[in-house]
Design brief:
By secondary structure, the protein is of the alpha+beta class. The protein has one domain. The protein contains three helices and three strands. It has a three-stranded antiparallel beta sheet, with no helix packed on it. It is globular and about 30 Å long. It starts with 14 loop residues before the first strand and ends in a 6-residue tail after the last strand. The model has no long low-confidence stretch (mean pLDDT about 85).
């Protein structure tokens, strides 16, 4: 886990949240994120943890962020350099 929240980009992260595969695909297609070895996780600070509720909804609702304004707003605002690759072999 990185030391900095990927939502606000400022506070120290305290937890990391999984990201649905469809969200990774969205970030690769829409924000030119490099495809991960395995998958990405979103490090989150205590202040921002409540703002990642679209993640929980995505796992329940199938994950596709297209058409979900809350999910796309969160994805479009993430600090991509702060995402962590789930693979233990990631550079």
């Amino acid at each position: 886990m990185t030391d900095t929240c990927a939502v606000c980009g400022e506070n120290p992260s305290v937890i990391d949240r999984g990201m649905p595969h469809e969200w990774t695909e969205y970030l690769v297609e829409e924000r030119d994120l490099t495809r991960p070895f395995h998958g990405y996780r979103i490090p989150v600070c205590a202040d921002c943890d409540g703002s990642v509720d679209p993640i929980r909804k995505a796992y329940v609702g199938g994950g596709d962020p297209h058409g979900d304004d809350d999910a796309t707003a969160l994805l479009d605002a993430l600090v991509l350099d702060n995402l962590t690759d789930e693979s233990p072999d990631a550079p």
